[in-house]
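Reviewers asked in the last cycle whether our approach scales beyond single polypeptides. To address this, we selected a multi-component target totalling 894 residues and predicted its structure end to end. The input consisted of the following lines:
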Amino acid sequence: MPSRNLVPTRRELLRGSGALFAWALVPGKPRADGRDPRFLTIILRGAVDGLAVVAPVGDPDWPKLRGDKGLASEGPAPALPLDGFFALNPAMPHLHRLYQARQATIVHAVATPYRERSHFDGQDVLESGLTKPGAIDTGWLNRALAMLAPGERVKAQNRQAFAVGPIAPLVVRGPAPVLAWSPPRLPPVGDETTMRLLDLYNHTDPALARALEERIGLAAIAGPGAMTGNADMDRPPVQIGGIEQVRKYFAEAAGAAAKFLAREDGPRVGALALDGWDTHVNEGAVKGRLANLLGALDGAIAEIETNMGGAWRETVVVLVTEFGRTARINGNDGTDHGTATVAILAGGALEGGRVVADWPGLRDTDLYEHRDLRATTDLRSVLKGLLNDHLRLDEEALATAVFPDSRSTPPMPGLLV
Amino acid sequence: MACDPKEAALALHRFGFGPRASSILVIAADPRGALLAELERPNAGQIVNADLPSSGAANRAVFEFNAERSAGKKREERRREAATQTAMQNAGGEGMTAAKPDAPAAAASQPEAIPLPRQLFRNEARARFDAAINAEIGLVERLVWFWSNHFCVNANATVMAGGYEREAIRPHVLGHFADMLLAAESHPAMLLYLDNAQSIGPDSVAGVNRDKGLNENLAREILELHTLGVRTVYSQADVTNFAKVLTGWTILPTVSNPDHGGEFSFLGRAHEPGPQTVIGNDYREGGVEQGRAVLADLAHHPATARHVTTKLARHFIADDPPPALVDQLARRFLDTEGDLKEVVAALIAAPEAWASEQAKIKRPNEWIAAVLRATGEPGEIPRILQAGNLLGEPLWRPPAPKGFSDDNAAWLDGLGQRLEIANAFAHREGLGHEPEAVMDTAIGPLASAETRRTIARAESRPQALTLLLMAPEFQRR
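The resulting structure, written as structure tokens, was:
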């Protein structure tokens, strides 16, 4: 197979979207303050367990909730200290380094306005920027781009939204032209998907269950090393159970987005989705599946930083999920759908090195409906704060067109340098 | 008749290519009647597409294409040689640059045209999948796929595989078995695939003069695979004699026949002269008629009736079909002199055909067609073909003349690969579809509570669609 350059030429970029030309014709003024901001949104579909990403190790109620299934400052895999109260999952050393360099911020106990627990509806609310699910076909990021006044911050030639993946996530779809780029590698079959299918077969179809189990067994025998070795051969590698494949896909998708955004003539706003966070069974936050996934995500963040090059100092990456998970571990060593979670911010443009949280506490009465981490911060205020400071969208546009009916949720100030 | 959505869904999966939007509702009033009605449609099973050339025309076009390409390469070589020589004569090593090695490279970097043979193949494949995707239920197309696999040829051996199916199989899927048998065995694609085109009677004029001889391949496979069945009523002597009968069934060479090259031809001077005995019957010398007479008798033999109806029941109903069902179908076959429409009608009418258990796993290409129907996506033909390749059912490229297997065991191994393809498809197309709506379309009343729950609880729409396409109710029929 011929090697393939991940970054297309400008000509190829242009070919990707005919609608782009409409934007290219908007006359641009020189940028007011000489900065050229980059903004990348990563949607983590499946509901990330925020307490497993950043744990309140200083909260005396924390060990009672999760015991040895939760992050701890001591032990064989100690969590990485953030501010004395919170600590980061040890699978994320790159994020920790950025945090220490004041280029990463954690917002905790944060949630969208959505208070039910359906993935599809939760994702619709997260990506649409509306307060309720329903028939929606535009996302807040795209509407934000469409609201930018000509000549401000983002040059006209960079005014297309950019999406990585076989299909553009809802957050980036809408009136502003969208340029989509798909990595040559499709998203691998995640463990989550395989386990769910196996569970369904086990309950309904023993013959299919046996066949699928054998496939998983073969993949496990082949091992990650064997899979890597296979990757360049004509025969497609066995992907089931392969965290290596997930790592590669995460890094490739996120890294490609950064390369596009870094280009002088490239887009300035992009989005991609990374799936696989719905950890109902054997979550493995400290060591196991979720730790592996977070490691893959950490690798993707590092890849973005590297590929942004000099543009990193003008970059904000925001990683968000539809809702959090139950505060307690369920009967299958996993967690069920919950409410508040974390949002991860990374990038050289941030005033970082902080955990922003109005901590609600973890006693039974503190928990939302006695089960979930309570939301004390509206995710929209975080996103509005970033759009306001970074892309200079005015508050009125943010409160009406971008996040309709959000006047009572003002932009969070001070997130940027 | 009572409305029966469950039977309608079964009918679509078991006898068709799976439901499209609202097709369960459309046939729910009378699913069996809807199946029978599909057999009565005018032109059922035919593909009307003026852009698809006859197999003979395809053969000639590819012959010209290959000849031109070969000439083009030789011309290029000559030009290079000449340029090199000129350069050497001019100024030794320095003059080598005159050969401009980068000029052809620049031409090659332009978007490459798809070579004619591949384009022809894709057009045929597109027409075949369109017929499956656009059918109301798809019973007749399923019959086309079944018989095409029974009388399989291999696209590696001939550019005529698509034309063969349209010319030899489709016209007869609702006609008489004897006519399909004759059309298949006398088609150039088959004569090439099973080597009869070069089989020469040892005592024929050509055989004596050129000291060439018999090739038994086609005769053996007709007896073993296409008609009587392996280890039935024939002997090695029958194979040899039948091979002699079939000598002279060959193809007009394209190089000397610009208008008819690649078409069937009976070459008397290659035909073994004299009478032959096959399965106890004597056939007097009669040129091409001798072979036709043997085929006609084979088509009506009770062993043939049992063999093909067993395969038909295995394909549609179960790996080990109920013996009573096979008996009934074989009897219908013999009573109607191999009227295939009547045999299928008997299958539809049989209670054994309607067991609620979905005993069969869809073959890979059936599953791909079902995915496209359930989602309303037309699919891109290169991707469709690639999926078939990955799943072990490359279109018109069976591993052996026996065709692709109809046993579940043969396809279970590919389940992991199906999961990867379902996942890739769902990530490409998945956001545009509401998984629960696709579920109602695709399996509707067949969906178990577990499947419904699994889809509803999926972590994302692409995952939900993946799980639906992998659900037992959708994998099976």
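Chain A touches chain B at residues 45-47, 119-120, 123, 165-167, 169-170, 186-190, 192-194, 196-197, 199-201, 203-205, 207-208, 211-212, 215-216, 218-219, 236, 238-240, 273, 275-278 (CB under 8 Å). We regard this as preliminary and will revisit it once experimental data from Aim 1 are available.
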